[in-house]
Amino acid sequence: MILCICSCRRWFLFLIIAVGSAACAPSPFATLQTPTPFPTSTYPPQQFMQPIPTIAIDAQTPLPTPLKQLLASVTPVATRPEPATPTLRTVMLATPTLRPTSTQTPIPTATIPPTPLSPCTERIPADSLLTIVTRQYPISADYVPADLVPLSDYFAHEITFGYGTHVRAELITPLLGIMQAMDAAEGLAPTIISGYRSYSTQAIAREKWEKQYPDRVDQLSAPPGTSEHQLGTTVDFGSPMLENQFHTNFYLTPEGKWLEEHAHEYGFTLSYPLAAYPITQFYYEPWHFRYVGVDLATRLHESNMTLTEYQLLMLPEPCIP
Question: 0.90 exceeded by the pTM?
Answer without folding.
Answer: no
